[in-house]
């Protein structure tokens, strides 16, 4: 035991020295002397740009998660969430709709809420509407489609209905909270003893830091895969598959998943496909992307059991497809 | 006093993140990744990282060795447990972008990415003309900027804010001047307008710069002079540009930056009507320090 600890201590020292050296190298060496393939340079730039865009939102997310962890008790949650399943789902979707978040920032918040005793289905409702329906997204969608209210309203309406349906199906299919870590299941009541405010705030920040390290590795992995696909896979080849409305809708959903765009920026990309695909397919892109994409699937896998993430993925995909298609018949 | 190695490591990484974000702003490299309009978010990130760093530093040393008893029934890693492979992989992943970020200079997107994204010419990818509409509607309608506070209203060169009157003036210039100058700040607007109404602008002279991009199936005298339009970050870049014709286009390599004078003509490609530029003079230039263009944002009430 003693020996093992020593060994891992050594290993970690080697590791940290390695990081330090790697970070200091560029100070002494002009990196241009390193020959890195051009495509990797492109990949790295896209990868970092996704991170630089997402990290501020994740930081806000982990701070909110830290706040929930320290200041919100299970009693609060019990008092707030309606007993009736349908009402609970409805409420969570509405709360998500007024809460501005992006799809990566919201994952730590949902994890913390469910850990605190929010039922899974309510957490899912919040997870789905949070990034999709908020003032910034409404505004950017409205603008991207040339001040066309119709698309913005459809996006919000169809998205809200789909989120409700998905959360309700989840409430029927799953009885437990589906969190990955078993410890989370043994919820002990938060100690009611009131600590002074300052240590609690410091405790909140500490939780946020740990949460950041927990979450960011998945965000980083997801961003890397998304950048990889952007660099090496042609969107063009994908577009040529979409001949019928069903095909083009599926193509646009696949595109939304792979591109992993932030919900605030995706409307402009969606708008750029208007000549190529029918409105229905573009609507699918706009509704599907904020609910699930590559980057946040990887983050969800870190929080929930793989089986649940898979079922959720299938549910979101099929229900969004169905609802969007139905909306075109209206 | 007990030294907690993992807490130290987290502090180190937070410190490096703080430096990385601060450095992006100090060197101006941020514009190679993000539309400068959103600078505020990454500045805020640098400040938040710094605050977290200060808090984290207090955890590196503790009075006595006590495993943090988790009164808050949390499940995450508090960094008090021992090392294992999973943890090493975790920290390595977090360190990875910092390492590549510091070591590898940002690249400018090039024609290989353009080819993946697809372009306006041709049937499958007529989205190019689309793009423009998106950009144009932005121009026409974006009276409100969703991120910036009032303090940020001072127009920085690259932020591409224009007041209403300035914008109208620039737009009028497009219609009245004999030679259209495709300046960076109005590039996407002018491009949209010309692409939408090629007949209106046929016969006018035009001056623009961009990088060379070629689609499969181009004639030997065809190429596209293109720019990337960045809405938020590089990952959402879309490509816009004019189909350009002149003898010897095949001798110019992709990704070469060129400046041309030419005349707008109405032509067609794959049955789509579009403006085609006939080059009168062309010169090869260095890649500009600001290779990207951004949608115009009009300020209301100026």
From TrEMBL, chain A:
Transmembrane segments: 12-29, 41-65, 86-109, 121-145, 152-174, 218-239, 251-270, 276-294, 306-329
Subcellular location: Cell membrane
GO cellular component, one term: plasma membrane
Record's keyword annotation contains Transmembrane helix: yes
Coiled coil, from the record: none
Membrane topology classification: Multi-pass membrane protein
Protein origin, superkingdom: Bacteria
Pfam families in the record: ArsP_1
InterPro entries assigned: DUF318, UPF0718
Keyword vocabulary terms for this entry: Cell membrane, Membrane, Transmembrane, Transmembrane helix
Family: Belongs to the UPF0718 family.
Name of the protein described by the UniProt record: Permease
Gene source species: Ureibacillus chungkukjangi
TrEMBL record, chain B:
Membrane-spanning residues: 7-28, 40-58, 88-107
Pfam families: DUF1980, DUF1980_C
Keyword Manganese: no
Alphabetically ordered keywords of this record: Membrane, Transmembrane, Transmembrane helix
Keyword field contains GTP-binding: no
The DUF1980 domain, residue ranges: 9-119, 164-295
Protein's name in the database: Putative membrane protein
Lineage start: Bacteria, Bacillati, Bacillota, Bacilli, Bacillales
């Amino acid at each position: 035991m003693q020996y093992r600890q020593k060994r891992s201590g050594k290993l970690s020292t080697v590791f940290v020295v390695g990081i330090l050296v790697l970070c200091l190298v560029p100070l002494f060496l002009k990196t241009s002397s390193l020959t890195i393939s051009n495509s990797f340079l492109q990949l790295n730039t896209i990868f970092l740009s996704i991170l630089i865009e997402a990290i501020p939102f994740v930081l806000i997310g982990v701070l909110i998660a830290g706040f929930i962890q320290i200041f919100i008790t299970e009693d609060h949650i019990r008092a707030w969430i309606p007993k009736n399943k349908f009402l609970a789902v409805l409420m969570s979707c509405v709360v998500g709709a007024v809460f501005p978040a992006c799809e990566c920032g919201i994952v730590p918040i949902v994890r913390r809420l469910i850990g605190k005793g929010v039922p899974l289905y309510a957490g899912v409702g919040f997870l789905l509407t949070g990034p999709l329906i908020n003032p910034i997204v409404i505004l950017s969608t409205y603008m991207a489609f040339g001040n066309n209210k119709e698309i913005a309203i459809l996006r919000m309406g169809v998205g809200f209905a789909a989120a409700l349906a998905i959360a309700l199906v989840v409430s029927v299919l799953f009885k437990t909270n589906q969190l990955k870590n078993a410890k989370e299941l043994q919820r002990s009541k938060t100690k009611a003893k009131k600590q002074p405010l300052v240590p609690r705030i410091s405790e909140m920040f500490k939780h946020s830091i740990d949460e950041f390290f927990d979450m960011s590795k998945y965000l980083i992995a997801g961003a890397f895969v998304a950048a990889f696909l952007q660099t090496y896979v042609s969107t063009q080849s994908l577009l040529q598959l979409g001949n019928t409305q069903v095909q083009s809708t599926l193509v646009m959903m696949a595109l939304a998943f792979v591109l992993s765009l932030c919900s605030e920026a995706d409307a402009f990309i969606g708008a750029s496909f208007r000549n190529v695909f029918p409105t229905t397919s573009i609507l699918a892109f706009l509704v599907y992307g904020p609910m699930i994409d590559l980057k946040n699937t990887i983050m969800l896998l870190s929080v929930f059991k793989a089986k649940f993430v898979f079922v959720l993925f299938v549910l979101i995909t099929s229900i969004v497809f169905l609802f969007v298609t139905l909306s075109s018949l209206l | 006093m007990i030294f907690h190695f993992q807490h130290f490591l987290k502090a180190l990484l937070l410190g490096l993140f703080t430096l990385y974000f601060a450095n992006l702003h100090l060197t101006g490299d941020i514009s190679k990744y993000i539309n400068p309009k959103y600078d505020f978010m990454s500045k805020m990130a640098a400040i938040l990282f710094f605050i977290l760093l200060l808090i984290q530093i207090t955890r590196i040393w503790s009075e006595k060795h006590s495993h943090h008893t988790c009164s808050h029934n949390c499940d995450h890693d508090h960094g008090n447990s021992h090392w294992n492979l999973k943890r090493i992989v975790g920290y390595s992943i977090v360190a990875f972008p910092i390492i590549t970020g510091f070591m590898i200079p940002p690249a400018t997107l090039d024609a290989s990415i353009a080819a993946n994204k697809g372009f306006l010419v041709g049937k499958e990818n007529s989205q190019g003309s689309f793009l423009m509409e998106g950009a144009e509607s932005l121009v026409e309608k974006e009276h409100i900027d969703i991120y910036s506070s009032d303090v940020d209203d001072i127009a920085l060169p690259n932020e591409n804010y224009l007041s209403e009157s300035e914008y109208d003036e620039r737009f009028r210039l497009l219609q009245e001047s004999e030679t259209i100058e495709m300046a960076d700040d109005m590039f996407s607007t002018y491009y949209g307008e010309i692409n939408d109404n090629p007949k209106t602008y046929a016969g006018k002279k035009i001056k623009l710069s961009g990088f060379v991009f070629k689609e499969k199936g181009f004639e030997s005298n065809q190429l596209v002079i293109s720019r990337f339009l960045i809405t938020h970050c590089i990952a959402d870049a879309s490509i816009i540009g004019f189909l350009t014709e002149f003898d010897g286009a095949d001798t110019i390599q992709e990704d070469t930056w060129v400046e041309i004078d030419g005349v707008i003509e109405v032509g067609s490609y794959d049955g789509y009507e579009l403006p085609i530029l006939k080059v009168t003079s062309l010169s090869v230039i260095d890649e500009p320090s600001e290779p990207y263009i951004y949608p115009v944002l009009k300020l209301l009430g100026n």
